[in-house]
Amino acid sequence: MNVIRTAVSEFLGLFVDDGSLALFVIILIMLVTAAVKMEIISPLIGGGALLLGCIVVLSESLYRAAKKR
């Protein structure tokens, strides 16, 4: 049973290395999607917001990783 748990943990680690990075990206996607669906922003602005938001979230994650080392 321990081997299976370790294998699943390693498999998930391939996709989610930094939990907060994944969480922030999911929250960003949810917020932009809701704003576009409620027609608060246009889809073009939503796409730009996703691009810039992902760049900001990734930069923050890289900064935290570099600060640890």
List the topology elements:
Layout: H1 2-15, H2 19-37, H3 43-68
Helix pairs in contact: 2-3
Describe the structure.
- The chain is mostly helical.
- The chain has 3 helices and no strands.
- Helix 2 (19-37) packs antiparallel against helix 3 (43-68).
- The chain starts with a helix and ends with a helix.
Question: What's a concise summary of this model?
Answer:
The chain has 69 residues and is an all-alpha fold.
Shape: flat
Overall average residue pLDDT? 88
Distance between the termini: 34 Å
As a percent range, the share of helical residues equals over 70%
What structural class results from the helix and strand content?
mainly alpha
Q: Flag low-confidence runs.
A: none
- The H-and-E topology, N to C, reads as HHH
Query: How many extended strands?
Result: 0
Helix count, per DSSP?
A: 3
Task: Report the β-strand fraction as a percent range.
Answer: under 5%
Biggest β-sheet: count, sense, barrel?
none
